[in-house]
Amino acid sequence: MQTLKIGTRGSPLALAQAHETRARLMQAHGLPEQAFEVVPISTSGDRIQDRPLSEAGGKGLFTKEIEEALLDGRIDIAVHSSKDMPTVLPDGLELITFLPREDARDAFIGKKVKRIVDLPRGAVVGSSSLRRQALLRRMRPDFEVVIFRGNVQTRLRKLDEGVAEGTILAYAGLKRLGLEHVVTDLMPLEDFPPAPGQGAIGIEARIGDRDVERMLAAIHHVPTGQALTCERAFLAALDGSCRTPIAGHATVAGEKLSFDGLIISPDGTESHEVRLEGEAADAAEIGLDAARRVRARAGAKFFDGWA
Ligand SMILES: NCc1[nH]cc(CCC(=O)O)c1CC(=O)O
């Protein structure tokens, strides 16, 4: 077979994820590194630095150019952070493979204090994610939450410069970058539920590309796939307004799946949670059912407030 072209964003995290995918494929198929080519692709999401991405057009910004390359045949597979993937993909493409999930929790990086609970009243905490901003406000209404973008290095520099007392990032991303030593605290799943898909590498391919399907089947992690099916069904059913922060996390043990979902107002004052358990084989139905329940509990007005 010719070289398999692995498309990815060019950020350090994206490249680390592409390299992990390549390593797993090499291992599973006994192939040398030269059997693969990692193709970095710049996306609009990487280029827009001046405003929150939720205002610039949301999640699709990180995937558009990569999906065009996949559809054009310039690459054969695309490696993504599942969390950044829209729930609706372009015709002809599917997310078919998930690698074993890393720790899905958010991590706190404190400058003067290690634990977020030890921050003084009114402390400034930086985050660019609507979910994290809302959860921070719910947890500590006294915090001043400021927008904080950029890669890990940029954020650490901002902490050094005194722009904020701390910031929150996905533990998984930090681990994959070999930066877990900067983490000073881990956020509990209950107070600070992760975004749907957090910590899971997802691989997108052309529907019906049999050679690629065969290659990828060997590295697919079934429990992660089931968890992601549930989380993405929850997200898809609620995603009408991308201005509503949504958290969702499923865990799979044997045949059983357990899901926790949450929607929260951006100011953190109103949140609605749901927990459902069921058969892992019913992952999509559980996610959809959870979305119906949490939507019913919140009422239609909840979504109107800030949409
Ligand atoms: N939105 C950016 C993004 N997309 C995926 C990750 C981390 C890795 C992951 O969740 O799999 C991050 C950075 C972060 O949230 O800290």
From TrEMBL:
The annotated subunit structure for this chain is: Monomer.
Spell out the GO cellular component terms annotated for this protein, sorted alphabetically and separated by semicolons.
cytoplasm
Q: In which pathway does it act?
A: Porphyrin-containing compound metabolism; protoporphyrin-IX biosynthesis; coproporphyrinogen-III from 5-aminolevulinate: step 2/4
The miscellaneous comment for this protein is: The porphobilinogen subunits are added to the dipyrromethane group.
Question: Which residues are reported to carry the modification S-(dipyrrolylmethanemethyl)cysteine?
Answer: C242
This enzyme catalyses: 4 porphobilinogen + H2O = hydroxymethylbilane + 4 NH4(+)
- Origin organism is Mesorhizobium plurifarium
What's the protein called, per UniProt? Porphobilinogen deaminase
Q: Name one Pfam family in it.
A: Porphobil_deam
